[in-house]
Amino acid sequence: MSSSSLRKVGGRPISKIWEWFVKGDLVPNSKGYYSATCSFCEYHWSTAKVAKLKKHLAYECTKVDSDTKISILMMLTNNCDDSEDDSYDTSTTSTTKSKKRKSNDRSQTHIDDHYENFPTPLGKEDQINKVLAKMFVCCNLPFALIEHPFFIEFVKTLRATYNLPSRWVLTETLIIQEISRINLKVNRIINEENNMTIAFDGWTNPTGQSIYDYCLITEDRKEYLWCSKDYSNVPHHTGAFLGDEIIKIVDNIGPERLAVSDNAPDARVA
Ligand SMILES: [Zn+2]
Asked: Does the keyword Ligase apply (predicted)?
């Protein structure tokens, strides 16, 4: 169509796909298709369309090696500009950019249908688990949600081969890992800072616990949560009590690196 004239000038560039197929004869009256034989399983096409060949290696061929299969899946997911593709809309001329996008979107949906059945690599699973843990904590979601059938259905619709961790793994492993990772990071930052301000504030969480947060504010006004203390068992959070608490924390950080600030009225006494 719009790109056919462009293609005629230099002929179609050779598609990468032919590394894995034996190219046969040009099929007469076929807009330039060839016959082809799969180098792995020797399946033969009298008229070979590039899209079919890719699909064969990605999902059908029983003898293809896994490296090749992954390359093909990458080609399919990136929808790389394979010039010999069957979609004639896939031109690189600027006048047909919008057309190209549309064509890509359509094939993307089609590819996703297959791609979601491809195993989720371990690295990807770790990445998803991290984001999942962060979401549960930061959005204050009930941990039971992770085992709710509707939530599982939602996740499976997005990525069928990803297995959600159990509630136990979420709370006992993933969240602990994420907390450790953040603590390490905060410690590293705080260790390099001087002239920090410590601020603290108390609040009651949804389960009725009395929590005090101690934050460190760096010279460039960045705020880090240093620690949280549960004072539910302390009957009166008096100035003297909080004073003792803050002295312990200040000693721990190094008093010479700090100034004290207050958010709660009690803190003035301290
Ligand atoms: Zn094959």
From this structure: no
Residue 40 has pLDDT above 90, yes or no: yes
Rounded to the nearest angstrom, the distance between the alpha carbon of 62 and the centre of ligand 1 is: 6
**Ligand 1 centroid, distance to 42 Cα (angstroms):** 6
Residue holding tokens 């033969």? 44
Tell me the CA–centroid distance for residue 117 and ligand 1, in Å. Answer: 19
- Centre of ligand 1 from the C-alpha of residue 119, in Å: 20
| Domain ranges, ordered by start, for the chain | 4-115, 122-186, 194-269
Q: For the segment 228-253, what is each residue's pLDDT rounded down to a tens digit?
A: 888 888 888 788 888 888 888 888 88
Cα 2 to Cα 41: distance, rounded to the nearest angstrom? 37
Q: Nearest to residue 53, comparing CAs of 32, 66, 26, 72?
A: 72
Task: Give 206 Cα–ligand 1 centroid separation in angstroms.
Answer: 59
